[in-house]
Design goal:
Blueprint: E1 19-27, E2 44-49, H1 55-68
Antiparallel strand pairs: 1-2
Length: 73
């Protein structure tokens, strides 16, 4: 009827480049705590980009993709 075709692709690093709109902090991973000057304090890191496993990563990736795609029938 419409003669549309779909192309499927897999982006391996798709969640890694989403820019976050909100401030998100994470605890320092276990193997990296000794690299910080005061290991006795509870130090957190502020994320500047989305990372795999983050709940907001999929939403930010979809928002970026939907801003680029134009669907017309």
């Amino acid at each position: 009827m419409f003669r549309l075709h779909a192309v499927l692709l897999d982006v391996e690093a798709d969640f890694l480049y989403g820019k976050l709109e909100e401030e998100i902090y994470m605890e320092i991973p276990m193997g990296y705590k000794e690299f910080y000057q005061d290991p006795g304090k509870d130090t957190v890191l502020k994320l500047q980009m989305a990372m795999y496993g983050l709940v907001q990563a999929a939403r930010q990736w979809f928002k970026c993709l939907s801003d680029i795609l134009i669907i017309g029938i």
